[in-house]
Amino acid sequence: MRPLCGLVRSRPRPGARATLAALLTLALSLGFLVLTSPAGAAEVGTEDIRVPSGSGPDAVELDATIYLPDTDEPAPAVVLAHGFGGSKRSVADDALDLVERGYVVLTYSARGFGDSSGRIGLNDPRYEVADLSTLLDLLAERDEVQLDDDGDPRVGVAGGSYGGALALLGAAYDERIDAIAPQITWHSLTTALFPDHTGDLETGTVAAVPPTVDDGVFKQLWAGLFFGIGSAAGGLLDAVGGGPSGAQGAAAALPEELLERAAQNPEVVEQLLTCGRFRPEICAAYQSAASTGTLTPEVAAVLDRSSPAGVLDRIEAPTLLVQGTQDSLFGLGHADANARGIAGDGTPVKVVWFAGGHDAPGSGRQQEDLREQVAGWFDWYLRGAGEEPGTGFEFPAPTGLGATVGRVQGGGQTVVAEEYPGLADAEPADRGSVSLAGPVQPVVTPAGGAPAALTTVPGLGALTAALGGTTAEIPGQFAAFESEPLATAVEVVGASTVDLVVASPTGSATLFAKLYDVTPNGGTTLPGGLVAPLSLTGISTDPSAPTRISVTLPGIVHRFEAGHAMRLVVSSTDQAYALPDEAAVYSVGLASAGAANGTVAGESVLAVPQVDGRTEAEAGSLRWWALLAAVVALGLLGWAAALLWGRHRRRQVSHVEPDGEDVPLRFEGVTKAYKDGFVAVRDLSFEVRRGQVLGLLGPNGAGKTTSLRMLMGLIRPTEGRISVFGHAAGPGAPVLSRLGSFVEGTGLQPHLSGRDNLTLYWAATGRPAEDAHMEEAIAVAGLGAALDRPVRRYSQGMRQRVAIAQAMLGLPDLLVLDEPTNGLDPPQIHAMREVLRNYAATGRTVIVSSHLLSEIEQTCSHVVVMAKGQKIVQGTVEEIVGSGGSVLVGLADDADTDRAIAVLSALPGVTAGRTDDGLVAELDGARRADVLQALVGAGIAVDQFTPRRRLEDAFLALVGES
């Protein structure tokens, strides 16, 4: 299954439009289980056809393909519908699989996609659903298709996401459909794009979430991604030949009549540029939602028309509902609601959850299992063959693993229950109780909602897991309530519920609830990366008498291990959703069981759904045992080889240099070359001793920043070795914990105070708070009361000082600073100079890269000068400044200046003249002693005789020579 995932660009790049469109086509084509067709597949017959559908201005031609099995008898048919952004090509491999099983298969591109004409109506019954009926008419006329009656083919419909909703709506509006298998699709687009997880639920199922009644929280990133796929740029470019087309096209050609009208009517051109392939009412609904973030009746009407929610009671076709546990677009609650609506009138329904979804693809083995399930469903209900699939419930065996980009939980086992809890006559779901505790807490929502917490990036799964298992919660913007460590493991299968008490000064609030798994050492995982948006209106404005709110968390499948804790976090922001513009401070607490409205409690009960069943290996897994045995054997061989190689590497590379503690930094023959042939650093070698303040000098392009980035493990050298305290430095090297750095910008959060920025930074390291030496670092910043003001009010110099204090947190043994005095005034520069000298005097080491040569001269004890990626010279400041002959001569009587110039100019290798600093003698090989003796011998009184050359002069001379 190809997940619907999005690419977010901050700015367009020249020539990138075609690449983006091709990537969107690849990533957004939601076929229903697109896999490589089986090896050795037999030849099948195919026919590419154009199918007229609709009438008048809404008439279209659908691009379709019919796959014919190798049989002389009429066979049941299956219509495969593709996902949003895809085309008939997206499901071609699935079609081949089904035709080899003996089905006639019809694939097609929905109107507005692929090579079909028309504009997108989001599965509007008047358009896309009517097109499906037209295709059924076509199948009924084919001799190869088995009929139930005249004009009534024996047919099933399957599809994922956009195609899954079409299967549901098609079965509701066309009773000729005999079985359907919709996957990872929606129940209500209104609830999907404007979710609100508040309110009581009257159902015994495991994953039900409250439907949106009045308003919800706009899921702006997902909505923007959808609209972007069908935006004017892609549609119009393809229509006029300016973008990708054919198999790789991300958009369909616009109807010819629209192009003709556009050529004569500027208003039509504007409509195309604004709405692209969408119908005008869809475009207007999105623009309204995107600009206001609110659900208007007009927007709701458009979304409800494209939702199966209102017509589920019409569906009589047996339904296999497949939903993913890693899906921030259409969560498990959508399948739950569809199952309740269809089974309510006695239609057979089977529910299958798998470890995947729009945010992360399932494994190949899982996808193969689902493909078998879909085929088995059609075998039974279209042919009366195979094993009766039943109406049970299957879900991946819960594990304590979190999702990462490209990987989801699932240990190769599935739990099978005889029935879906609470569905039809089934017993309601069992719910366990977990006690949460925590005081009432203030929660700040920033003006404009920025910065916002990071949980899930649409299409990319749990971003936090990819970053090491922790989300980006913003201090001050959330309340947290936690259980005691669990005595026994708790397996959560579905949507948990909890009651909160909330107050807001405005009487309304937007919040996001999420349930974390907390390990004994404090590590956190957010199962599925899922959050529950809460849209609260009419709540109390008095924190002492808050309003009680019932909250349903997202449906998950997760095992909280013994010794772990459950942490409920309620935050005011989430980057995937539209947020209020006005700043406010909410009051959020737990509501104790049975407490009346307005009662504030310190603990509450989290009700967690649990499902019993038998655990089975995934279908088809036995065939993997032989492969697994081979992999294990290869693994053992690889392990043995790794041991031998590891010993060799440890002897060669991973040794600790014996003088490492005395030499905090050593570059040995380091080169950094790029694929285009550019060499940024060439054969760089130098070392820094403990207690030194080293200045790294060089013009732009000298390789200074590249050298620092290699030192910090951000990039790898092409050749050579960098060692920090005797250990090899590289990405993730533990020794880098002894290094503090400030390079390329402050990275401070503008809405937080300087103190909060320092606290947040240190918390992100995961090290104990007492190791931060916060007060020493704050003393470095020297901001006084300003430290507790928001950073956005700071001057550049103030930001610079906080960033340097941040680099000094933990008092690192090696401190690396890039342009530390930028934005500082002279008194601040003087203070910074003293700070760095005193820091090095404690036995630590400081490296400063700067273009202010006078500051390097006054601050640093040693200097490395670079040019064109190479080291020119290294030494103490005195050694470098003292080389060369430029002497400042101070005379007791200025009247002697002309005579002194004449005396000096007569000496070989000496040039003398007046300067702003006074009389200067340039010595080219002449000795200073000879020059002084000549002046004294001529009877000229000399008060001052000092080397004049400064570091700037030495630098310019050295760089010029290079």
UniProtKB/TrEMBL annotation:
It comes from the Bacteria. Residues 665-893 form the ABC transporter domain. The keyword Iron-sulfur does not apply. It holds the Pfam family ABC_tran. The keyword DNA-binding does not apply. GO terms for molecular function: ATP binding; ATP hydrolysis activity; dipeptidyl-peptidase activity. SMART domains: AAA, PepX_C. InterPro entries: AAA+_ATPase, AB_hydrolase_fold, ABC_transporter-like_ATP-bd, ABC_transporter-like_CS, Galactose-bd-like_sf, P-loop_NTPase, Xaa-Pro-like_dom, Xaa-Pro_dipept_C. Residues 1-41 form the signal peptide. Keywords: ATP-binding, Hydrolase, Membrane, Nucleotide-binding, Signal, Transmembrane, Transmembrane helix, Transport. The chain crosses the membrane at residues 624-645. Belongs to the ABC transporter superfamily. This is ABC-type multidrug transport system, ATPase component. It comes from Blastococcus saxobsidens (strain DD2).
